[in-house]
Amino acid sequence: MDDFHLRYLKQTPYSDPGDSGGLGLRAGTLPRDPGRLARVVRDLIIHRGEGGRFGHVIPEQRLRDDAESRYVGELLRILRARSDRPLTEPRPPEERFVGTCRDFALLHCSLLRATGTPARIRCGFATYFDEGFHADHWVTEYLAPDGSRRLADPQVHHGYDVPFDPMDVPGDAFLRAVEAWRMCREGRADPESFGVRDLNGIGGLTYTGLWFVRAGVRRDLAALNGVEVLPWDDWGRAVLDDGSLTGEDLAVIDVVAAASGEDELRRLYEDPRLAVPDEITSYTTYDGVRRVTLSARRA
Length: 299
What we know:
By secondary structure, the protein is of the alpha+beta class. It has one domain. The protein is 29% helix and 16% strand.
């Protein structure tokens, strides 16, 4: 049994469903197939920028609050409060959790782990939402029956026109954050083509640049070490534009991007400049900048 299987079959404090409150998260009640589990996730979550796709006006309070839930246990409690339907029963939009791509990926990861498939979430950039742009995005990485590792996008449904199987996203369609960093540092890509653009009318957000790619590398490294933070979480000295990047900032991420394997990545994560501390800064979409004390940091 390889290290991926041993390490990523175990739930983290973030992915742990805990007591699902009667929603049907028990052995034998969920499908084991990763694609069917992705369908379960899509029927439980609505992306907070996609109410229009479903002809649904998302209440403002849910836009503000749902996606601030860091833990799958919280996500499931919200679902339970809205309906007592079991997890495997499709929900209308008004009964769903209002989340982001990170929530789709983390719930999918949680269900995969719960049904015996090693999985983890990855932070990076998708090329299939906005032509010519690398959009900040999270996906699931899971161990396929043939022993290969595959990327899955549980958010993608029939409303998206993508030229690939969402359960096997090709590497040129989703760039892991370290790959994006290397491309930018080597002059093979424009850093301004990476980040967030306000395609869905969420708070007028537009953030791009090398500083944003750096944030993605840090979040991805944390997730690989069992700390699956929110997409707007950060820690340490504030770096919110390219002008704030120092030579040390660049050098630290260059070392991460040059790591020769996952053992080295785990060792690098012990660096206090990279590891997630007990208290972090959350640059929330609707409620401004907040200091947050995490209840759990690693598996």
